UniProtKB/TrEMBL annotation:
Native species: Chryseobacterium formosense
Protein name per the record: Barnase inhibitor
Any Pfam family the entry gives: Barstar
Origin: domain of life: Bacteria
Barstar (barnase inhibitor) domain segment(s): 1-87
Family: Belongs to the barstar family.
Family matches, as InterPro entries: Barstar (IPR000468), Barstar-like_sf (IPR035905)
Length: 101
């Protein structure tokens, strides 16, 4: 299975997201930076099976990219060869940091 990881620590907006996605998922040159184009590419052009994984998302990014997440979950429901997951960034517990000193 082909897995593409997108690290959200360097992503502030959709432009940043599409830039990283183009590099890592090897999207076609003509790809348009929008959700409709992404849906079309995933469902018709990318090699399957494919697992797309977003890591280090912040709570603010969950809200900003809500439409994207919903779209990818819908594609996952319709295409058994496509899977998708996202993970929030991990914060160290301040108490643990103090105990290490």
């Amino acid at each position: 299975m082909n897995t593409t990881y997108i690290d959200f620590t360097e992503i502030g907006d959709y432009e940043d997201f599409y830039t990283q996605l183009k590099e890592k998922a090897k999207l076609p040159e003509y790809f348009g930076d929008n959700l409709d184009a992404l849906s079309d590419v995933i469902t018709g052009e990318l090699e399957m099976p494919l697992h797309l994984e977003f890591v280090n998302m912040s709570v603010d990014q969950l809200e900003l990219f809500e439409d994207l997440l919903t779209m990818l979950e819908d594609i996952e429901d319709e295409n058994e060869e496509f899977t998708f997951a996202y993970y929030l960034e991990q914060y160290e517990d301040e108490e643990d940091d103090q105990n290490e000193d």
